[in-house]
Amino acid sequence: MIAQGFLIRGQEILMVKQHVERGDIVWNYPGGGIEEGETPEQACIREVEEETGYVVKITSLLVQTPQKYTFLTEIIGGELTVDRASEVNKDIIDAAWVAINDDEKFYLVTKPMLELLAAQNAFKQNLFI
């Protein structure tokens, strides 16, 4: 199981550039495996801090699949940095705020999260009209 954090700043999303098992280099949302004894929420908070330097809090569960929890998160501390000397970050190349319209950074796995968030926001806005 994986837990990941979805962090939004204006029209940007926090992402990490990483090597994945199949050999590709992709931009993904910060996150990783849930360790024994950890809740998905704890894993998300730990993984975001390990991969980006930001301390976050969970604001809500965006989506849950059989393999993954994706949480909306909010930064409460830290600063954007990647500790490349850390063994836990051996697959991380970079972390950056990515514009939501930067189609080169989003792919089959990450694009649906943007679409889901846009749909949720449109629904919430229409509820109060």
Automatic annotation (TrEMBL):
It comes from the Bacteria. Its cofactor is Mg(2+). SUPFAM superfamilies: Nudix (SSF55811). The keyword NADP does not apply. GO terms for molecular function: hydrolase activity. Residues 1-121 form the Nudix hydrolase domain. Pfam families: NUDIX. Keywords: Hydrolase. The keyword Transit peptide does not apply. CDD domains: NUDIX_Hydrolase (cd02883). Belongs to the Nudix hydrolase family. PANTHER family: 8-OXO-DGTP DIPHOSPHATASE-RELATED (PTHR43046:SF2), GDP-MANNOSE MANNOSYL HYDROLASE (PTHR43046). This is NADH pyrophosphatase NudC (Nudix superfamily). It comes from Planococcus koreensis. The lineage of its organism: Bacteria, Bacillati, Bacillota, Bacilli, Bacillales.
